[in-house]
């Protein structure tokens, strides 16, 4: 029997009873004859609480210390899950990311996994133990410092372990029954997708559908690991993320044609910065974005207005993670004299709504239908960006829910009967 790699999110580990329930599920797999490796997240909203605590102490905590603090959340879970397993008469060994051989680059707060050397895991498995790994963390190959993989990163830990251990599948256990056509917390009539392609899941995750961490999907695709997203609160089959839903994953009775639209995603974690009055000449944009790159900031949408003829000045707006807002503003302020722009504007009361579907490539009229749905819901569009299989708009933060619901209905994604159950979590 092969190795089973599972991941339990914070919403599945909210308290002592939840931890005991998860331990029983893990032990059942072991009893069925499998070797089990489990990546765990911090309990409930622990990570958010630790972030709040840090911000209460310092407005801009040093990134290294932030990682030291946040990794403690997953260490609490791993030890408690191992204890609950031992209480059921099985032995478990918990390991930090570093002990488990999760090697990363040295970027604190959003480190990338560059290698997994699971020697201690395979040794523990060989000795008959169930292995519990603290998710969302690793150790930098260069600096030897402890790093974190970015919010939601335990998904990536799990898929990276599945790849390193050559598991057939990685199971992601959460508080909903799978990947739905929209966040069931906003659209109760959202439908569960039985399968979705890596390609569409990458866009959904990149656009804020926090059901899966973006890099976990990238990892799964690169190493060909099918990801099975399902609920830890039910026994239902979840959503399979695979390369080609037509040919891979479990087969269904009726092999339907793939739907045009996979789903609607939303994101409330971004902010918008506008650099006002940038001289319209060669090299200005390059200098601005060089400063942001040096500060390790990932940008999302970028819009440059046509410069006003009278002034030859232009405005450049872009979106970025809110958590990087202060660092970006500081980096840009530093180059104001050099670039010669007028001022900076910061807006974090924005949200992004995205429509995703591989069928967009071959079906015209999707954009007009999307924008018409937003218009009829009274939602004003601030910025627009597209890829081959996605259209995203920036809207006012207060319009996000209306925009998601209107779009979901306009594309006939609503289920006739409510099938989405949110079993736990606070949605934070
Ligand atoms: P975990 O604690 O298990 O990591 P998360 O809170 O990170 O759980 O992710 C699960 C949540 O993702 C769900 O409770 C749901 O609110 C949200 N979500 C957003 N978009 C979707 C989607 N398209 N399908 C399912 N859940 C979604
Ligand atoms: N505990 C971390 C977070 O809340 C990592 C994770 O849950 O995947 O983001
Ligand atoms: Mg998560």
TrEMBL record:
Lineage top rank: taxon: Bacteria
Top-level enzyme category: transferase
SUPFAM superfamilies: ACT-like (SSF55021), Carbamate kinase-like (SSF53633)
Ligand binding (ATP): 7-10, 174-175, 185
Keyword annotations of the record: Amino-acid biosynthesis, ATP-binding, Diaminopimelate biosynthesis, Kinase, Lysine biosynthesis, Nucleotide-binding, Transferase
Amino-acid positions noted as binding substrate in the UniProt annotation, renumbered to this chain: 47, 74
Entry-linked PROSITE patterns: ACT (PS51671), ASPARTOKINASE (PS00324)
Pfam families for this protein: AA_kinase (PF00696), ACT_9 (PF22468)
GO biological process: diaminopimelate biosynthetic process; homoserine biosynthetic process; lysine biosynthetic process via diaminopimelate; threonine biosynthetic process
Residue span(s) of domain ACT: 273-349, 355-428
Molecular functions per Gene Ontology: aspartate kinase activity; ATP binding
Presence of the UniProt keyword Phosphoprotein in the record: no
Catalytic activity: L-aspartate + ATP = 4-phospho-L-aspartate + ADP
A GO term from the CC aspect: cytosol
Associated pathway: Amino-acid biosynthesis; L-threonine biosynthesis; L-threonine from L-aspartate: step 1/5; Amino-acid biosynthesis; L-lysine biosynthesis via DAP pathway; (S)-tetrahydrodipicolinate from L-aspartate: step 1/4; Amino-acid biosynthesis; L-methionine biosynthesis via de novo pathway; L-homoserine from L-aspartate: step 1/3
Keyword Coiled coil included in the entry's annotation: no
EC id: 2.7.2.4
PANTHER family to which the protein is assigned, alphabetical: ASPARTATE KINASE, ASPARTOKINASE
Family: Belongs to the aspartokinase family.
Function: Catalyzes the phosphorylation of the beta-carboxyl group of aspartic acid with ATP to yield 4-phospho-L-aspartate, which is involved in the branched biosynthetic pathway leading to the biosynthesis of amino acids lysine, threonine, isoleucine and methionine.
Protein name as it appears in the record: Aspartokinase
């Amino acid at each position: 029997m092969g190795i089973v790699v599972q991941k339990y999110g914070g919403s599945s580990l909210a308290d002592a009873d939840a931890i005991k329930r998860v331990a029983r599920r893990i032990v059942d797999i072991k009893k069925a004859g499998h070797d089990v490796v489990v990546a765990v997240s911090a309990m409930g909203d622990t990570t958010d609480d630790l972030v709040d605590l840090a911000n209460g102490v310092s407005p801009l905590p040093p990134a290294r210390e932030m990682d030291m603090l946040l990794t403690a959340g997953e260490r609490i879970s791993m030890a408690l899950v191992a204890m609950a397993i031992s209480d059921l008469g099985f032995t478990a060994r918990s390991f930090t990311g570093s002990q488990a051989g999760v090697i990363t680059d040295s970027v604190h707060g959003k480190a990338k996994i560059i290698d997994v050397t699971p020697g201690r895991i395979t040794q523990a498995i060989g000795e008959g133990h169930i292995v519990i790994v603290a998710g969302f963390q690793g150790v930098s190959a260069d600096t030897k410092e402890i790093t974190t993989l970015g919010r939601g990163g335990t998904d990536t830990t799990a898929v990276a372990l599945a790849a390193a251990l050559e598991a057939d599948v990685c199971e992601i256990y959460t508080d909903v029954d799978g990947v739905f056509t929209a966040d069931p917390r906003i659209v109760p009539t959202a439908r569960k997708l039985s399968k979705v392609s890596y390609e569409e899941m990458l866009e959904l995750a990149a656009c804020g559908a926090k059901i899966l961490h973006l890099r976990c999907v990238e990892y799964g695709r690169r190493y060909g690991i099918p990801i099975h997203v399902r609920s830890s609160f039910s026994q239902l089959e979840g959503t399979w993320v695979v390369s080609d839903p037509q040919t891979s994953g479990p087969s269904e009775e009726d092999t339907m044609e793939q739907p045009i639209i996979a789903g609607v995603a939303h994101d409330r974690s971004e902010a918008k910065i506008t650099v006002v009055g940038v001289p319209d000449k060669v090299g200005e944009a390059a200098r601005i974005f060089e400063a942001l790159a040096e500060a390790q900031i990932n940008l999302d949408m970028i819009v440059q207005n046509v410069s006003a003829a009278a002034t030859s000045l232009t405005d450049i707006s872009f979106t970025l993670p809110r958590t990087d807002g202060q660092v970006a503003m500081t980096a840009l302020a530093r180059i104001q004299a050099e670039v010669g722009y007028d001022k900076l504007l910061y807006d974090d009361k924005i949200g992004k709504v995205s429509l995703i579907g591989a069928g967009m490539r071959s079906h015209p009229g999707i954009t007009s239908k999307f924008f018409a749905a937003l218009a009829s819901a009274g939602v004003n569009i601030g910025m627009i960006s597209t890829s081959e299989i996605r259209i995203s708009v920036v809207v006012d933060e207060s319009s996000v829910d209306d925009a998601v619901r209107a779009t979901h209905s306009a594309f006939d994604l609503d289920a006739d009967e409510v099938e989405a159950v949110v079993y736990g979590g606070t949605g934070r």
